[in-house]
């Protein structure tokens, strides 16, 4: 659209400006935009935006940019709205953070992996994990991650890897998510992920004290002199509560492992390790305490979700049930991990979110039991 198009005239008529003023303003705008264009051309050749340092200027979407230059300049007289820099690194991603700790960790880690793979920066609209982790590389920037200014990028399924997530068109900034529950998005950067998901020192100290306490009780009950460092802590996370009580979870397809899965998993661990102290955590401790007791079974007194997460992820090995909270504590613990093989009912909507073999979700060396 050329200058003086109908939209331009309508704009001026609206303010009822005299025509010589209109012509004068038009000249100023044209000259200004030519100068800007030239200076931006020069500067775009001489400067590169370094990754993970300089917050990029948010960019308009391509549709807007291809509209009449004059109309754009009149509406928003900012030079950054007139050109789209060539460097991919000027663009950024924001994870769509929702849900509890486990879900947030997944979307953060996956979007981190996608950002690293595509040479983009990472920002967050808020950090809902800062009570647990002291340093995430994604910088909080409410303005840049304002959902209204971003295009949304969603995966085809929630719990399997979608390679198209790395094929986003270059000229946009994206809000990415919201589940992205596959380790394959961040597999290449797992050291960076583990480093960022280092649990805050004070939470870690409390978790250590708690495990020391358990080790003391365990060794004294055995009447053996056993140093606490030779005790093998195995976490047992039993997700029940909400998953059982709320019918929408069941309808969607969640299958909750029963008592016999936990018994089988504990027996399996006993074939691999000795001097085991099983450390239980659940959102249904009443049920767990009614079903499991013994000299090697412990229920930590710290019961809030963050302390329990710190305890579970400080254990040597893990028995998980369902849910992402247990998934992440096992991932961070890094030992032998047993998982429930059938977390989703065949034919359910939840089942469709996973790959047919569940291999995008559970790590390759984790062991599935039924
Ligand atoms: C992430 O933050 C840590 C700590 O500040 C820093 O050492 C590391 O280089 C950062 N990683 C990236 C990829 O920016
Ligand atoms: C350890 O034993 C003491 C004394 O019997 C008890 O008060 C405490 O609750 C036990 N701790 C754990 C973690 O079981
Ligand atoms: C440990 O010793 C106490 C007495 O000191 C005894 O009552 C208990 O049965 C012993 N436990 C085991 C496992 O030997
Ligand atoms: C289990 O992990 C703790 C650290 O959390 C360590 O001190 C201990 O030696 C480990 N136990 C075994 C048997 O490896």
TrEMBL record:
Keywords: Glycoprotein, Glycosyltransferase, Golgi apparatus, Membrane, Signal-anchor, Transferase, Transmembrane, Transmembrane helix. The keyword Membrane applies. Its main location: Golgi. It is a single-pass type II membrane protein. It is an enzyme of class 2 (transferase). The chain crosses the membrane at residues 20-42. InterPro entries: Glyco_trans_11. CDD domains: Fut1_Fut2_like. GO terms for cellular component: Golgi cisterna membrane. The keyword Transmembrane helix applies. Pfam families: Glyco_transf_11. One of its GO terms (biological process) is carbohydrate metabolic process. It is found in: Golgi apparatus, Golgi stack membrane. PANTHER family: GALACTOSIDE 2-L-FUCOSYLTRANSFERASE, L-FUCOSYLTRANSFERASE. Belongs to the glycosyltransferase 11 family. This is L-Fucosyltransferase. The lineage of its organism: Eukaryota, Metazoa, Spiralia, Lophotrochozoa, Mollusca.
